[in-house]
Batch of 4 targets.
Target 1
Amino acid sequence: MRQTCVSKAKRIVVKVGSAVITTDTGRLDRARLAAIVEEIASLKARDYQVMLVTSGAIAAGLERLGLEERPTAIPDLQAAASVGQGLLIQQYTGLFEKHEIHVGQVLLTQYDITHREHYVNAANTFEKLLDFGVVPIVNENDTTVVEEIKFGDNDTLAALVTNLSKADALVIMSDIDGLHTADPRKHDGTQLLSEVAEITPAIESLAGGAGTAFGSGGMVTKLNAAKIVTLAGAGMFLIDGRADAALVAAMNGDDVGTFFAPRGRKMTSRKAWIAFGTVAKGTITVDDGAKEAMIAKGKSLLPAGVTSVAGLFTDGDMVEITDAAGELIARGLVDFAAEDLAKIKGMTSEEIHKSHKELYGREVVHRDCLVILK
């Protein structure tokens, strides 16, 4: 699967973590930045379209402000990001100019992903930048974002950018060389997993804890990113971003890092937004018959298969769909308000027509607005 993904990839997202481009004291590692830009330039020369999701703005701000450690208060982080974002893009701009490559800065918040109009606008912006041969440089808008609309880590942001831009692969450049059978920083004799065909509970159990002092992610966020990307039909590489030419090696199909294989066909941009770009307003639990109909037969969800309703949603909102055991099996845009669906859950069409004629003739979630996640 690794070779197949590499041979088909034309558009890729490269995510660079803070631990890769900062020193042990949290300052920007300009030599590493230059090396990464060199690799991206070499891929551009091979006609790859490349988008760069980069951490480091806060680290750059800490350096300029003379702070010895990363603050924890949101206003302090926002101030550091405000100072550092300009410094970081300045560094990238100068380095890419040496290769005659233009860059464009794109700052996103979760609001831009969860609201459909903003999502489409962002996708159109990426498309046009790539048409112009520009390398989009993406980061969370740390200067204005608040906790309620934070991505929380750039691994998630990179995965969502991969989806909305219809990229073929995501390459996460980290301070670890891939997914191991245990945390190699804590245990001896661990083995690197070259390829992961499916992210099972056993694979998830391998995830370690937090990353470095100057980063915000860990293996958990990387596996979550892999879930988002692979379920949408793209591949993901997790490689050591500190190793020389690791990015080029990954795109050559060499056995570096861990490759997460895509699952099934690529989703449309709209389906990817339904699956991963929105915040669910409630949960609908279904019986085994409805579960089978949706997963195996591609059917819409009907009221007869609904066993319980939770949350305060209205028609058009995003909901999560779980089975009797509480396992998440799908997400979709619901066609009923929660209070109305609660009245007719478990009813056949004939029963609805008799008792609630005003609610008759509608699916709970139409299959065109439904994404199976299991």
Target 2
Amino acid sequence: MATDSGPRRTLPELNYHHLRAFWAVAGEGSIARACIVLRVSQPTVSEQLRSLAQAVGTELFQRDGRRLRLTATGRLVQDYAEEIFALGRELHETLATGRAIKPVPVVVGISDAVPKLIACRLIEPALRLPEPVQVTLIEDSHEVLIQRLAGHELDLVVSDAPLEPHQRVRAFNHQLGESRMAVFGAASFAKLAKHFPRSLDGAPVLTAPPGTSQRRAWDAWCADQGLAPRVIAQVQDSALIKTMAQTGLGVFAGPEAIAEAICRTFEVQLLGRIPELRERYWAISPDRRLASPALQAMTARGRDLLS
């Protein structure tokens, strides 16, 4: 990182006419060709280059025969000029067409308990909107994401738990829906489909860590059924659980709503359904009404998927 080596200089206001002349010369490689592009005389361009060099306090070009080559400062100024005039073109196009060219940024927090396949299904319609959207996804625990939402770092949180009153965050819950749970496993566990769910007694299971809502619900259901599966791994990441199951290490519970996608993506089989065990999902936003088309599209897809 660069550090100040002396007192900061005060530069005059940047003249964008001079900057455009510089940008044209840098791109064309000569003043003569830049004059054709800019449709101005050579003395005018030369004077604008001198004025810009005086303003920045150093030369921007050096002579190499008949060509002009950029100095180190010249290359820096050219990089900024490229961005400045690219934004100008975007603005012109937006005003001319009435449609935004620059993607609208949307930052979404995904709880690490939410299956990646559900998250992918939710994000997809936002990326297919007529207006361009740039989605940033941040995965973390429910608690951390809620705090980041409170700090205005996120536009939406997708979680398997709602915002609770004790969290003292001004935000609103939008229930997306729920899914019955099912148990999946590699082909080597296909025999567990027979006599399900009694066959789970003693079977190797991959689960979420203790204290999570999924684990509490799973343990309660097993106790009600009088089952004692053998927990061989407690994994926070839902995708890692499925990847481990794909290798035949154990079985796992997942949402029946995406059973087909789970089986296809991770090459596992549906071993049995658990109607009594359900997972619910929420979208949590700072506003009661979602004004962003991208967030509306995501929540609509969630409700459709989990209806």
Target 3
Amino acid sequence: MSHSLGNEVSHLRGIDALRAVAAMLVVFYHMVLLPNMQIPVYLNVVKHHFGVGVPLFYALSGFVLAYGYLDKLNERSQVLKFYLRRFFRIAPLFYSMLIVWLVASRIKWGTFPGSFHDLVLNASLLFGLVPGKHESIVWAGWSIGVEVLFYLLFPVVAVLARSLRSGVLALALAILVSSSFFTVASSLDIGSYAYMNIITHLPNFLCGVLAFLIWRHLGFRRSAWQGSILLVLSLLGMLAVIYVPSAYRVLMLASGVRLDLYIWGLLFIGLILSLCMFPNRIIVNQFSIGMGRDSFSLYLWHPLIIVMLVDFYAWIGGRLGGGVLNFLACALVTVCAIRLVSYYSFRLIETPGMKLGKRLTNAQ
């Protein structure tokens, strides 16, 4: 069974919904960490595990690129069109946020972030290659720097990992290289770059590619009961990683290796496949699909909105205390504000950028 895409990735509702999940995990993670919000101990899972939303984004990116382009990059012209479309998918919003953060930093802190050279590096979108500059002028932008490098790498992946067997081998090799790199990088004086780089996260991206290869091998199967079982197993695996002490101790046996990151990647394969087989309405609904569609805007706008809401969080905390009601109230305000901004950001910035990229590639 094949799928017809033309030049566009066909609509997968489950993937859109998972984008929303990934985005909200990161939003709640930063909502707690940026203002140092006091939360009950049983909500510490937000601090310790919700950052996994970024690796989930990478896995989803790998799946979508494989689904849309794995068999379509056979000629130089096709590769150039791919790069052009990816540029106009990322650049318009990122450049807009770059301007927003320059203005916001000047207003709030009285200075511009970084130097002229930092600005040029951010404009090149290649800051993910430079330790110390990788976190970007745009807050949370480090992941965009890594994503751009995945785009640059993908035509090579498309050549080397076209079959299920080659995809498995590529993932195994990536885990070996990633773990070795992380071990060495952690011993160097390069700060967060040991984690925030393309090599460390390459297995997550390839897990998404492998999820597509598995689904294709299954004939793009649709099955409510198989999808449901796979979803339950994936969620149970995630809960075990988070809440079972013995599972956590096993993951920590390999000192200096992000074994937990690779386990999450494998669980993401199951999660992606489950919703491809059966996009159940609990996760896949009109609200999550809409948020998933706008997730790039949601992701890039959320740190600024959280910073703007810090005093309001304090006001809410003063009235509700530091319990679960305080967390839920702050989460509700944050989601409403970010959802509103991302809705218009997608339509006013992202959509025109994507249309321009499409026109330019169609004109070639």
Target 4
Amino acid sequence: MKLFNKTSIAVAITLVSGHVFASGFQFNSQSATGIGRALSGDAAIGDNASALARNPAAMALFSKSALSGGLTYVQTDVRVKDVESEISGQAIGHLSDAAANKFVPNFYYIHPVNDKFAFGVAAFTNFGTGTNTTPITTRYNDAFIRKGGQIHPLPFDLLGQTDVETITFNASASYRINENLSLGLGLDSIYGSGKLVRQGVIGNLPKDIGADITTPLTAAYVDADGWGFGGIVGLLYEFNKDNRIGISYRKSPDIKVDGQLEKLDSTTLQQKVFDKLEIPLPDIFQIGGFHQLTNRFAIHYTAQLTTWKKFDQITLEDGELAGAKVPNEPLKEYHWKDSWLYSVGATYMLNDQWTVRGGLLYDNKGVDKLTSISIPDSNRIWYSGGVSYKLDNHNTVDFGVALVRGQNTRVDEASSLTGNTVAHTHGNAIYYGLQYNYQF
């Protein structure tokens, strides 16, 4: 008796899970100062050159050239537990380290040409993630589960490695129309690379599992990179020197990556090979305010919309099978929703050298009704704090930390290997940001 036939393999391939390029996991780690205040007011504050990541119009606040560079370390804690299949009716796996820690660098430079015009360049990250549920399935003894004398495969069509990295190279300009209103415009060149692996073993129903009766199967394999081009527009309105509001809209591209792109054909059980994979990245709208209430104390806030609804599917293009062309087809479909985050924060100047800041952020998930074990997304709350130390009139060092706490999430996803598969996921993170600022 076969564990499953060609028809069930075909269904399994259409359910391949994974976020090949971007997901509900968005890197909001463009600066240590932003991390320290939970991103609140980033589009309007302009306290260092990292303002360029959120609103190019904020460059109008600078009378001298400014440079900022830093590094963010994202320490993740993503757990997948109580993975239970419909066929076995029992827990088949746990994983306590399903996501990878990451270093995220950034760089910004702003140069005012005169009291009207300024330009700047930047390099930072908006999207990226890394999950790996492969350890549940790679050990040979765990490749099958037993129940009542029956042997069932693990749902390797839902589990595996997903790793995505992107970097945005930005060039922007701002123009001050009058003492109150400034406009900004920028061009984004986005480079991204990603890897997705969905592999496992199939076999017959023996008295005992042995290497001679198993067959390796690659449901999907992607190792690719590519470029896309987008842009950002921004506005800054200054009611006076102590109160201002900033608005920006970042238009993200549909990136086409190429590399090794393979997907199992449901009829022949041979690998289809594709030349390109198209990934639509979401747009980002942000509005933020800043209010200096006293000489030492200020408050700030942000509302940000990410259009995850635009991320409907990732599409394989220009494919062939055994030398014959095949139509474009989705590698994975998504039914996500647009999501908002809201943050508030405060900054207090202790003395001429030390400034402290803090913030609270609520981040809505992008994943909607269609859930995935490899996307342990949930609503999140940030608890942030940070400090700045002014070395002299030109040099400042910033440090920020944010505790990001997710929610327990029940994931219900279909697998043709084990039937309906249920898991419970939970994701937390800690952002550590260190940044150097120089005012010319």
